[in-house]
Specification:
By secondary structure, the protein is of the alpha/beta class. The strands form two sheets. Strands 1-7-6-5-2-3-4 form a seven-stranded parallel β-sheet. Strand 12 and strand 13 form a beta hairpin. It starts with a strand and ends with a helix.
């Protein structure tokens, strides 16, 4: 992959037209917000730009993509991905599309596009998109600013995680200066909990497994527990943080069963541990503080595999 600077990326966008923006599977606020802000920014310059409709986009983020999506790739589109760490993470329907440019902040990204930026120092891909938009001369409006604020706040736990830097906070400030309603977004994303999620929290509190004197937490979440609680994907977005929030926990792994019966792992760690190293050993990737992997087995077998990796790395 040809590595570009922010300025080179801006020149690429300015020189081309007809963009199709891709998000990742099980989209979070970063990929959803980046796609919306980039699409709106390109349109503000008179460019043709769309987001490929992601069938897994939940109700929480659908409003940010309203009026921006297409169901199928337009002919001769310039394909751009945002916050996608690997080709296997591209949203359903996009797996075989030739990505010309990627914007990402996952250190595990090996560069699957023809060209792009991978800045692992960015707390969220939203930081990169903001810098590119400004380098193109885009004037942020309220809609762009709020989409970017969603991207920044969700990947930093509302700026509480260790990945938050001064640059992250300056980016958030730029969003507020452009009209983003931070209070409303924070209230919706971080302070509002549906009864279904409260029921699941009660289940997790009773079934969480604590190891190494409470420093390591494992949370196996059976499909039956999800169904009995009545949770939606919106309820589950930050579920990986639940065990980490327990006092004394420095490393947390949550286990969920996917639609095809695989087990999706979400690993969260304090600076004392490396979540990415654990995920990499299990075929996944991510950041030092937050990473994940998908294993082709049930949760019981996945638990055994995780314990084996933790033992091999001297954590247990």
């Amino acid at each position: 992959m040809q590595k570009l600077t922010i300025e080179e990326t801006a020149r690429f966008f300015l020189a081309r037209d007809g963009f199709l923006i891709l998000t990742h599977r099980r989209p979070d606020g970063d990929t959803a917000g980046c796609a919306a802000a980039l699409c709106r920014g390109l349109r503000s310059l008179g460019k043709e730009a769309y987001i490929l409709r992601n069938p897994q986009l939940t109700a929480r983020y659908q409003p940010y993509h309203r009026g921006l999506t297409v169901a199928a790739p337009p002919e001769d589109s310039v394909i751009v991905s945002v916050d996608v760490a690997s080709p296997g993470m591209l949203c359903p329907g996009a797996e075989k599309l030739p990505v010309e440019l990627l914007l990402d902040h996952h250190g595990s990204n090996l560069g699957f596009a023809y060209r792009g930026i991978v800045d692992s120092g960015a707390a969220a891909c939203g930081e990169i998109v903001l810098r590119v938009l400004l380098a193109m001369g885009v004037r942020l409006d309220k809609a762009m600013a709020e989409a970017l604020y969603v991207a920044l706040s969700t990947d930093t736990g509302c700026f509480r995680y260790a990945n938050t830097t001064a640059r992250t906070l300056r980016a958030a400030a730029a969003c507020l200066e452009a009209g983003a309603n931070a209070y409303a977004i924070n209230r919706a994303l971080f302070e509002t909990v549906r009864p279904a999620r409260m029921r699941l929290n009660a289940y997790l509190s009773q079934h969480m497994e604590l190891l190494r004197n409470g420093k390591v937490a494992l949370c196996l979440i059976p499909l039956l527990a999800e169904r009995e609680a009545g949770v939606t994907e919106d309820d589950m977005e930050d579920i990986s943080n639940f065990p980490r929030n327990l006092e004394g926990v420095e490393l947390a792994v949550t286990f969920r069963t996917t639609e095809n019966g695989d087990t999706k792992l979400s690993i969260r760690a304090t600076p004392a541990y490396d979540a990415a190293a654990i995920a990499l050993a299990l075929g996944g990737g991510g950041h030092r503080g937050a990473a994940g992997a998908t294993l082709s087995c049930d949760q019981a077998q996945a638990r055994k595999m995780v314990l084996a990796v933790l033992e091999k790395q001297g954590i247990l």
